[in-house]
Specification:
The structure is a single chain. By secondary structure, the chain is of the alpha+beta class. It has two domains: 277 residues, Aminopeptidase (3-Layer(aba) Sandwich), CATH 3.40.630.10; 120 residues, Alpha-Beta Plaits. 33% of the residues lie in helices and 22% in strands. The chain is built from ten helices and 19 strands. The strands form six sheets. A six-stranded mixed sheet has the order 1-4-8-5-9-18. It has a four-stranded antiparallel sheet with strand order 13-15-11-16, with helices on one face. The protein has a three-stranded antiparallel sheet with strand order 6-7-19. The two termini are 18 Å apart. The structure holds zinc ion.
Length: 409
C-alpha cells in the first residue's frame, strides 16, 4: 500500500473521533450578540486546543465587540508547515444560527444525537462539518508522518451568520498580507449532499419594495379610480420581462439567467367591492455578476414609472437589500482544479463547477481578487430544525482535503 492509500485508510478510522469532536462543538451554542448570544470564544478555545494538540501554533486576530462577555469575537488559525507548494487555507465559521422553534426539533439542539451515520444538532452541518473535516485531514497527515506539500492553515472565524463584520471581513482588513493570489483557498460552506458541487461564482442580490399609489373607489365604478393592484400586477409581469435583459445566459449558473421574481405581497383591501388605492409588493432579484446594480435599478425605475404613468398611478421603489457580487473565480484557477482532481480521486465523482444565487463569505476573498472555491458535502438541513450531517460525508471530505494538503490532487 502506498503512502497516499495509507493516509486515506487512516481517515476511514476517524468516525468515532469525529463524532466526539462534533459532540464537543454542539454543546457550545456559539450565537452572536444580534442572535442573543455570548459570541464564539468558548467554541474557539476548543478548536484552538485541537490544533495545539497537533503541535500547531495558534494565532488570533480577534475583533473587539463590547456586546459579548469576552469583549472580542475570535478569529484564529493554526498552520502546519509544509514544503514549497502553494499555501492551502481551509476556512470554517464558529457561529451558528439560533435553534428556531424548539418544538420542531426531535431532540435537544445543543446535545448531539447519533443515529447510525447521521448526527443531529445545531451547527453539525453549518459549519462544524467544515472545521471537523479540515482538522481531521491535518491530523491524518500528522499521524502518517507526512509533511504537506505547502503550508496548510485551518481558519475558524466568528460572525459568518450575521454579516462577517467581526469575522472574515475584519480578518481581511487587519491582515491583508496573510493571503496571496497563489494560495489555494477553500471555504466549505455550500455544496451538494454528495460533495459534487464546487461554487466559484455568485449572483448579485437586489431586494426591492414597490409601493403603488392609485385612487380608491367603489368596485362598481373602476373607471372613476386608479386601481393600484392592477397596476402592481402589470409591474410584476414586467419584472420577469426585465430580468431577460439583465445579461447573457451564463452556463455557470442554474438558472443561467438573471431572475427578478415578485415574492412578498402586503395585504390590500379586505373586501371585494373596493378598488384598492394602494398596493405594496416585493421583488427578489438575482443578477448575473458583471452587471451593475445601478443599471438594474434605473431599468426598474424607467419601466415601472412608465406603467404607473399609463395607469395614472404613482410608484415608489425602495432598496431593502443590495449586494453587488464580485467577479467569479476562474473555473480554471488552481484551487478549483486541485479540488476537481481530489474529488475524482477520493470519491470517484465528476464534480460540477458553477455559481449560486445567494452570497457566501467567499465574496470577501473574491473582492480582493483572491481565487476561492466553496465546496463540501452539504445536506439541505442547514438552518433547519433537526439539522443533521453524515459521518461518512465528513470522512469523505477529509479525504479530499488530505489529498490537497499532501499535494496529491
Ligand atoms: Zn455557514
Amino acid at each position: 500500500m502506498d503512502q497516499v492509500q495509507k493516509l486515506l485508510k487512516r481517515i476511514d478510522t476517524y468516525g468515532e473521533q469525529m463524532i466526539q469532536a462534533q459532540r464537543e462543538l454542539v454543546a457550545i451554542p456559539a450565537l452572536g450578540p444580534t442572535s442573543g448570544g455570548e459570541g464564539e470564544m468558548k467554541k474557539a478555545l476548543v478548536v484552538q486546543r485541537w490544533l495545539e494538540d497537533l503541535g500547531l501554533t495558534v494565532l488570533h486576530e480577534d475583533c473587539p465587540d463590547d456586546r459579548v462577555p469576552d469583549g472580542v469575537r475570535p478569529n484564529l488559525w493554526g498552520v502546519m508547515p509544509g514544503g514549497d507548494g502553494p499555501t492551502v487555507w481551509v476556512l470554517g465559521h464558529l457561529d451558528v444560527v439560533p435553534e428556531g422553534d424548539r418544538s420542531l426539533w426531535s431532540s435537544d439542539p445543543w446535545k448531539l444525537r447519533v443515529e447510525g451515520d447521521l448526527i443531529y444538532g445545531r451547527g453539525v452541518m453549518d459549519d462544524h462539518a467544515a472545521l471537523v473535516s479540515g482538522f481531521f485531514a491535518l491530523k491524518a497527515l500528522k499521524e502518517e508522518g507526512m509533511a504537506p506539500a505547502g503550508d496548510v492553515g485551518l481558519i475558524a472565524v466568528a460572525d459568518e451568520e450575521t454579516g462577517s463584520a467581526y469575522g472574515l471581513e475584519y480578518l481581511l482588513k487587519t491582515r491583508p498580507e496573510m493571503f496571496s493570489p497563489q494560495d489555494l483557498i477553500l471555504v466549505p460552506d455550500v455544496g451538494e449532499p454528495d460533495g459534487s458541487f464546487i461554487e466559484v461564482a455568485e449572483k448579485s442580490m437586489l431586494w426591492l419594495k414597490v409601493t403603488v399609489r392609485g385612487k380608491q373607489v367603489h368596485g362598481s365604478t373602476p373607471h372613476k379610480g386608479v386601481n393600484a393592484l392592477y397596476t402592481a400586477a402589470r409591474m410584476m409581469i414586467a419584472a420577469r420581462e426585465l430580468a431577460q435583459g439583465f445579461g447573457a445566459a451564463d452556463p455557470l449558473f442554474d438558472p443561467m439567467v438573471s431572475t427578478c421574481e415578485p415574492t412578498r405581497k402586503e395585504a390590500g383591501v379586505s373586501n371585494i367591492n373596493t378598488v384598492p388605492g394602494r398596493d405594496v409588493f416585493y421583488i427578489d432579484c438575482r443578477i448575473l455578476p458583471g452587471l451593475d446594480l445601478d443599471q438594474v435599478m434605473s431599468a426598474f425605475e424607467q419601466r415601472f414609472g412608465a406603467i404607473a404613468a399609463e395607469e395614472g398611478a404613482q410608484v415608489e421603489l425602495e432598496v431593502i437589500n443590495r449586494v453587488q457580487a464580485p467577479e467569479a473565480t476562474d473555473p480554471k484557477a488552481p484551487v478549483v482544479q486541485a479540488l476537481v482532481r481530489a474529488i475524482q480521486r477520493a470519491r470517484g465523482l465528476e464534480p460540477t463547477v458553477g455559481g449560486v444565487g445567494g452570497g457566501t463569505v467567499a465574496s470577501f476573498f473574491r473582492r480582493l481578487n483572491l481565487p476561492v472555491a466553496v465546496w463540501y458535502s452539504c445536506e439541505q438541513s442547514v438552518h433547519q430544525p433537526d439539522e443533521f450531517a453524515r459521518v461518512s460525508s465528513m470522512i469523505a471530505d477529509a479525504k479530499v482535503l488530505a489529498l490537497i494538503y499532501a499535494g496529491q490532487a
